[in-house]
Design a protein that fits this description.
The complex is a heterodimer of chains A (121) and B (691). Chain A has a domain at 29-110. Chain A is 79% helix and 5% strand. Chain A is built from 3 helices and 2 strands. In chain A, strands 1-2 form a two-stranded parallel sheet. Mean pLDDT of chain A is 79; it is low at 114-121. Chain B is of the alpha+beta class and 691 residues long. Chain B folds into 4 domains: 1-159; 165-409, no CATH class; 410-517 and 655-665 and 674-682, no CATH class; 519-651, no CATH class. Chain B is 61% helix and 11% strand. Chain B is built from 21 helices and 10 strands. Mean pLDDT of chain B is 88; it is low at 673-691. The chains are: A mainly alpha (121), B alpha+beta (691).
Chain lengths: 121, 691
């Protein structure tokens, strides 16, 4: 019985790790633009958090009015810049997507087979 | 079951090797399928090590004495409840437990890793897989818990009697889990550095995983202290034992890290310093494994007979070289965004606190390693004991507590003279008042009095901050409770940290009380006789036998009376003249003001196979002091030999535990309220469908 269970465990393990090569799903490494957007998003959230923190510091009296205004304005400017970068990134990606869609449509006309899905890392 | 366990470990070894190689090759060659497969292999190692662990536990439950590990760590008399303890009671089982923990937390960390770290994930997977590969290799080829005996014994040796204690259900798992958990932030940060991610992408995941591991390790050490206090029979809770020290050192470094990472998060500073701290913490955790397994130092905790020392030493040195080579390689890219503006700032106070933590770590490391160096260099065996650590570390630890009060009062960037006066006035006044009152009350020991003043200073600084924040919200319309809750909820890392600081102050009270004001006495009592110490009379009233085939054991019951010292003035005078803290009364006649306040039971057992005694101390615990009765032995003439102590403020040591855990949880709890709204907006932008 233990040998059977051990063999079963080995078969399951091999099946799980072999599936990405044998299954119908196709995988690709995440794009640079996706990672960039995720990083921008995280940075923006960190700035929101910092704004919240300095507001708390100001309420507690840890910051003077002048310091609070200066830091808050700086952070708001940074957040706005990041929002702009995010927006630009999406616009560029949308354009690239349109080009890709056109290319895919062209290829579809040439072939009947196409990948059914995708996964990301 | 042995075959299944061995097969599962062998399979796990192959899977983790595949995962490490697959992740690296997949990343370098741009083969996405290979990286996905490597990640899945890492998940599967969790299944294989779980199967191996279940197989071993099942073998214990079934008393499968054909397995050497089961035969060495259990017997048919063992209470079945201790099967879980027996699982990690020995070297091989504890390594399996460590691997089980590592595989589970690795899988969780990879599963929940933020997508912005996608580029570095293959490297993180590879580092985690290599760590697992090491443990799988040791368990499969060097120290297998599934090794079979040629001859099956009639019964097993039994579990180590010192481990049959409730604390053992949680102390070793938490301690080992906390040490191995440092691997997670290390893997994320190292992975990010290899992938060329030098920014702050890894801050949140490193901070949260580091705090969780740190909290688990801290809770494990506290539970270990409680175990020592109640079972080791020496009346203490921390002995600067080498194995205690090797758990303390990474905890100290990680404490420094979780403070300075906040400076990086808030001010974009200390990147280089934080990576160096994390590397140091990881390498010290490996040092702990080496010292525990290698047996270069003798300890009540260590697996000293183990021959694994060279293997663990090699892995530790490899970890050291890898971590700091990577650090040196990426160091130029890890510069701070800005320089420190003033030494009177919160970031500067965090840096000072970091140095103090590292100083305690260095002193402790020297104390641990010096006997080894002495042995190697001069062939002279020496031991470094508690007085060295107390004398050198004591003042530095007090300095850390002082900084715990100063740091939060200082603002980021720089403090003005006005703000310094404003925020320091009350804590300083309360600290000075505390010292003055204690002196006026005739309390002895200047160092301890100063330490109490420091505790009052820090406590006031925390309470003052809570008061200011709560009052501001109260005046904005909240009731007091909601105002305080919103204050804490608004910045959980900060206020969770304050709750942890309160737990450290409670711990500090216990340490000061027990170290400076403990009273001890010894005596041998026949039934009906009493021992008097301080304001207590302890009368020996009953005993009984609780022997079992594997042990000779007896219990003793005592009644505890509160006394008026005037009723015993003659005996006390005599005792003081002899320089003793207590005395024995042959008659137990109740004096006029004696008042029965408690009954306590003690237990003493001698385990024949282990040639080892084990005790359960009788403890009457109150927030003011513990009455602590250790049954040294039951003498052949029918008397019981006792060591009795008064441990002032010891109750606060254990009361600090829940505060420590709650504070840690508050500090790492996600800040949903702030992030949810932007996250929803963000989803609109993720049209690529890559999430």
């Amino acid at each position: 019985m233990p040998i059977v269970l051990g063999t079963l465990l080995a078969i399951i393990s091999i099946a799980v790790i072999a599936y990405p090569f044998l299954g119908s799903q196709r995988y690709r490494l995440v794009s640079e633009s996706f990672v960039t957007r995720e990083k921008l998003r995280a940075e923006r959230l960190r700035i929101y958090r910092k704004i919240s923190d300095i507001e708390a510091d100001y309420e507690l009296g840890d910051l003077t009015e002048a310091d609070y205004q200066q830091q808050r304005d700086q952070l708001r400017i940074s957040a706005a810049e990041i929002l702009k970068q995010e927006s630009d990134s999406i616009t560029i990606d949308s354009r690239r997507d349109e080009d890709l869609e056109k290319e895919i449509s062209r290829l579809r006309e040439q072939t009947t087979h196409s990948p059914r899905g995708r996964d990301n890392l | 079951m042995a075959e299944l366990g061995f097969m599962a470990l062998l399979l796990g070894f192959a899977l983790s090797a595949y995962s490490a190689v697959g992740a690296i090759v997949g990343e370098r060659k741009g083969k996405a399928e290979l990286v996905v497969s490597a990640r899945r292999a890492l998940y599967m190692t969790t299944l294989t090590v779980t199967v191996a662990s279940v197989a071993l536990i099942y073998a214990f439950v079934q008393n499968d004495l054909s397995i050497a590990y089961v035969a060495n760590h259990s017997n048919t008399l063992m209470d079945r409840a201790f099967v879980w303890v027996a699982f990690y009671a020995g070297n091989e089982g504890s390594l399996l437990y460590i691997l089980l923990t590592l595989s589970i937390i690795s899988a969780l960390a990879i599963w929940f890793a933020p997508k912005r770290l996608a580029r570095s994930m293959p490297w993180t997977i590879a580092i985690l897989a290599i760590n697992q590969l090491f443990y799988f290799g040791v368990l499969t080829f060097v120290a297998s818990p599934f090794e079979l005996l040629d001859t099956v014994p009639v019964d097993g040796r039994g579990i180590n009697p010192l481990l049959t204690h409730p604390g053992m259900f949680s102390h070793p798992p938490l301690l080992m889990g906390g040490l191995i958990a440092i691997t997670i932030p290390f893997a994320f940060v190292s992975g990010a550095l290899i992938a060329g991610s030098y920014g702050d992408d890894w801050i949140d995941v490193a901070r949260v995983s580091a705090i969780l591991g740190w909290g688990v390790l801290g809770a494990g050490m506290l539970l270990g202290a409680w175990w020592a206090y109640t079972i080791l029979g020496w009346g203490g809770y921390w002995a600067w034992d080498p194995i205690e020290n090797v758990a303390l050192m990474p905890w100290l470094v990680m404490t420094a890290f979780i403070h300075s990472i906040m400076v990086q998060k808030r001010r974009g500073m200390f990147r280089m310093w934080n990576v160096a701290l994390l590397n140091t913490g990881f390498v010290l955790a490996q040092l702990g494994m080496f010292i525990n397994r290698g047996g270069p130092v003798v300890s009540v905790h260590s697996f000293a007979a183990s021959a694994l020392g060279v293997i663990f030493l090699t892995f530790m040195l490899a970890s050291l070289v890898f971590a700091f080579a990577l650090f040196l390689w990426r160091m130029p890219q890890l510069k701070s965004d800005r320089a420190m503006e003033s030494f009177m700032s919160r970031e500067a106070s965090f840096l000072v606190n970091n140095f103090l933590f590292l100083a305690v770590m260095a002193v402790t490391l020297w104390g641990v390693l010096f006997p080894l160096f002495s042995d190697l260099a001069r062939d002279v065996s020496v031991s470094v004991s508690a007085p060295y650590f107390d004398r050198v570390n004591g003042p530095v630890l007090l300095g850390i507590v002082v900084m715990m009060g100063i740091g939060p009062l200082l603002p980021w960037r720089k403090a003005s003279a006005r703000s310094l006066k404003q925020w320091f006035i009350w804590p300083t006044v309360i600290g000075v008042i505390t010292i003055t009152v204690l002196v006026a009350l005739g309390v002895q020991r200047p160092v301890a009095i100063f330490a109490f003043g420091v505790v009052a200073f820090v406590a006031t600084s925390i309470l003052e901050e809570w008061w200011r924040g709560t009052a501001a919200r109260y005046h904005a319309g909240d009731n007091w409770a909601i105002a305080w809750w919103r204050l804490v909820n608004g910045n959980r890392p900060r206020h969770g940290g304050y709750i942890v600081h309160i737990s450290i102050l409670m711990l500090g009270l216990g340490i000061i009380g027990t170290n400076f004001y403990q009273q001890r006495t010894d005596g041998a009592l026949a039934l009906g006789e009493s021992l008097v110490i301080d304001n207590y009379r302890i009368e020996y009233v009953a005993n009984g036998d609780s022997s079992r085939p594997d042990r000779i054991a007896k219990w003793a019951e005592m009644t505890v009376y509160s006394i008026d010292p005037d009723d015993y003035s003659q005996e006390i005078q005599l005792s003081n003249a002899q320089g003793s803290s207590g005395f024995t009364l042959r008659d137990s006649q109740t004096r006029p003001n004696d008042e029965l306040i408690d009954r306590i039971e003690t237990w003493h057992g001698f385990y024949l196979d282990f040639n080892m005694a084990s005790v359960r101390s009788g403890i009457r615990s109150t927030p003011v002091e513990d009455l602590y009765v250790i049954p040294r032995d039951f003498l052949s003439d029918g008397r019981i030999s006792l060591a009795v102590s008064i441990n002032p403020l010891a109750w606060w040591l254990w009361a600090s535990g829940p505060f420590f855990i709650i504070g840690t949880m508050v500090a790492v709890w996600p800040q949903v309220a702030v992030e949810r709204k932007p996250a929803r907006k963000e989803r609109l932008g993720s049209s690529e469908g890559e999430s």
